[in-house]
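Quick one, T. Sequence first:
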Amino acid sequence: MYLQALSIRNFRCIENLDLNFNKGLNILIGENNAGKTAIIDALRICFGYGGQKRDLYISLSEFHIVRNEVKQGVGEIEFHLTFCIEDEKEVAWFNDLYSVDTDGKQTLQLHFSYHLTEDNRVRYQVWGGSKKGQPIAPEVLHLIYYVHLDALRDAEQYLRPIRGNRLGQLYCNIQIDKDIKKDLERKSELAKKVRSAVDSEPEWVSHLLTGKKNINEHLEHTSFTHKKQEIDISFLPFDFSRLVDNLKIQMPVYADAILKGDPTIQKHFELFQNGLGYNNLIYTATILGDLQERKALQNEGYAALLIEEPEAHLHPQLQNLFFSYLNKFDTEKGFQIFVTSHSPTITAKAKLETVIVLQNPSGSINALSISKSGLEEKNRKFLHKFLDVTKSQMFFANGIILVEGISEALLLPIFSDMMGEEFNVEKAGIELVNINGVAFSHFANLFNSEDDSKNLSSRCSLITDDDRGSESDEIDSRAKIAKDLERKNLKVYLAERTFEFELFIAGNKDVLISIFTEMHPVAASRIGVDIDLKKHAENFLKKVTDNKAKSELAHRLAVKLGEDKIVRDAFKIPQYLQNAIKYAVKG
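Structure tokens:
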């Protein structure tokens, strides 16, 4: 079984949110304050309800407040979990959660509801299946468990050889014998052998006795005659779990080849001498090993791994390596992984179908599972190859502007700043995506589905050329295809002919010709002067194109607009570009 859907109501920053999950890896990405931590904590509350130790509880401050209403007037906090049944045995194991829909679909459901009393005390109800009030046996809840790696995790602390540490848990869960009873017996025998091996060393025993004698001599003088106290000292416990709690991880200094058959010369680094990033990887690997062994030991249970910001302390290449492994991780291991991140490096490396985008437009959190979006299979394949670290930033943006070339990508941020601070794309959190071509349809399906639940909630401006001929008012067929993509959250803005043509006829011919003359003086001298502005623009565009100078022209114009205030103040931004920027920023 695996968690297929989660509904959250009135919890922290989330008023109403429905999430769909994949069987194996799930990556929740989004801007800050988009609800990533709230979702992870909701899962922790639900998954940990049947455990002996719970580190999260619903308190008064967890209730979502709408328009500063008094807390008592706020709706109930609700968590509704739906698990997909993969094996008929799971119906028997989790019978208290069993539910059958009106269409005959079988699922396992777990529900939580929290409300406030008149004196602002928190009361709650938990039930299974589809009927409210259906009780759940403790042994059923105990079958659901998780491990959480928080964003500020201290790997060194968690791996320290103290009682209940993760390394000790891993060794406790590794089975020596398939039979549980025999496994416990063999582990007990093994602990006794280790203890006996230490206690059989005469010099060591003598040393312990000396220390014991010193302590007992002082105890004798501080104890009543009829209440004499004595202590005993032992190096290792007889209990297997206490024994493995004393294990510690070290990093070997020398490679095997250097040892040349003599392992006695090996030295080790302690964890505190290791880097934070690698310690986090060691800790995560220990967790994965422990979960794998626990799942093998308790095959009927449901296990989840919750990781917040795995990119912490990892440089980009190590992030790539780590996520390549998670992408390939065998879902047959039996546990589900939930990861939160705001790293475009991780997003670029992840399989798109594992990604869930969280957005917070106007204070209302939305979620879009890419696997449930309007993207077709061919779109996903294209985007998986196309999205690098820079372009993946679009999933974290408040709005997106798609452009077909480097010229627009260079100049639009400057144009937006010239339009005023309220339209500055950087300050507005707008991402410019240069797709280096005209394959707009692969991106469009993230914004223009008639079903709003399949769209990103951010706005998208698509800027391209209409490529009409000099003697025609008919736009090119490619531009028509782009224009047909305009629906819902996507608007298309066409340049008359080309980007450079529009810049020229907007009233900027002098500065453009001046820059081009610096670049190609001979070609510039042949542009000529024409009374007709559009004819003049055509001649200019032809020379620029023939000399393959579009990107260099844009670069030099960007520099001049940044350095020359007179040129900047006189420059006219084409209206279609202004409209595209305004839509992406303000709608």
